[in-house]
Structure formats: C-alpha cells, structure tokens
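Quick one: Ring-cleaving dioxygenase from Mesorhizobium zhangyense, structure tokens please.
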Amino acid sequence: MLDQIKGLHHVTSMAKDARQNNDFFTHKLGLRRVKKTVNFDAPDVYHLYYADELGTPGSVMTYFPFPNIGKGSHGTGEVGTTVYSVPEGTLGYWEKRFAEQGVTGLRRDTVFGENRLAFDGPDGDGFALVEAKNDSRAPWTKGGVPGDEAIRGFHSVSLRLKDGGATEELLKFMGYEEVDTAGNVKRLAVKGGNGADVVDIESLPGVGFANLGAGSVHHVAFAVENRAKQLEVRKALMDTGHQVTPVIDRDYFWAIYFRTPGGVLFEVSTNEPGFDRDEDTAHLGEALKLPSQHAHLRDYLEKNLQPLGD
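--- reply ---
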C-alpha cells in the first residue's frame, strides 16, 4: 500500500460559458480565482482555477469552458458529486444564500452522520457542502462570504460506478482505507491527509455510462508532496499493470494520468511549485497567464477569449 498520496489535489470539469462559470465560483461560492490561463491542448479555451487564498492542494476546482460543448449526461464511470467542507452549523447560511442567488437543486440530507446541502452547478454539475468537524484549513475571506461560514476546501468526491470493487481495491492500494458503508455507498479515507481526505464509491450496476460534456468532471487529481514521491507512485502503479502517462509539466504542478477500472480518469499531481510561481500572491488569477508554447498567441487570445467580467 502506498503512503505518498495525501488526499485530493484538484477536480477538473467541463463548462459551456466562462463568464457564468467564473461568476458562480467567485461570487456565489465565494472562492478565489487563483489562475486564469488556457487549455494546454486547446489554447482558445480558458483553464480557470478556483480555490482558497493560495490555491492549496485539496481546495482547487478547475474548469475548461468550451463555448460549443454539449451538455453532459450523468451516469456511471464518472465523479458524481464534488463535496466542499464548511464549518458546523453553517448550512442554514448557505441555503439562504443560494436561494437568494438562484442556485438550483437545493436539498438537505445526512450522509455518514454529516449534515449536507446538495446543489447544482451552472451546467448541472453535482455539488454539496458538508458540515465537517475540526477542519482547521483557512478559508478565502475576500469573496463575499464571512470567514465563519466560508468554504475550507474539498471534503470528498463520490464516484458513480457500475461495479465499485476494482476501483475500491485501487484506492486501497493508493493508501485509502474503508471507514464506513451505507447501502450501496462505501466510504474510503486516507489517514493524516490534507483535509480533502475522503472518496465515496457508489455502486450502480443498473445505470448506464455517463457522456462527457458541460457539467461533467473530466478528471480527479490526488496530491503528492513532490516529484520524487510522484515517481514512486508512478512506478508502483505501472508495476501493478496500470497504464500511466509520463510526467507532464502543467506549470503549477507536475501530473501523471491513468484510467481507473471503473472508467474515471485519475491524476496524481505534485504540490510543487504552486500557483504563485508566476504571479504575486496578492494578485493571483488576475492576469492571463499562458503556457510557454502558447505565448505567441497572446494578442489573439486577449482579443478573442470571452471577458470574465471579474
């Protein structure tokens, strides 16, 4: 069993409208946009990152807004719900805030003994807030949400799978342990992690596969401290038969990717170098930052990318 993985690093999803996406995460959720850049493989499309003040691993939600993308259809083989951690006793604040701001799909429930408020993202994305105990992570407090209520970072993701068995074994190999079961959902967690420690596996054998589109999670990334730890993980995964990409430089972290038995794309990302490598901490996410291979496109992109309306 591996011990290098410390929880979630980021979750990356697809959207249709960049301005709407930016408004939802910065104004409705009160998160900080920590990076405004472009897709490495499609530079005419933004890559937007929303997180806490510094873009701490375990707090980072990222989006590719493709203007012409169709709407995704939910099913198995995908991340079903991305869950944020908020302080105990704050769901009433969030329910009122969301209702006033027109956020849809609001519904309360209790999952594994934790109070939860589910809600829809702008493209029908599945989200929830969970009142988490003893989450000491510092929130971003300049996004319109008071610090006593503000989001601390991720709590968990849920995987919707036809058969969760093989992915469960993979996660256990990656350092996760089963901590609870409720119906068709198994909860796994990594001990001593970064606060974004939990993965739920929902087994849905009778449900068809999801189709990727706006509102779909593209991949979920797990955090390791540095490149040396990442290479240890890559070797161990390859030794057990997984097809893992070479290490890819994503400017703000190094990444490796592999497809899980249940169909979800996993990434393992380094905590280094971080989002302040090309911007001062006080001004994260303000300027358009371009990967070096796309620097020559700056004039074109600044004229043609949709204004975000900051």
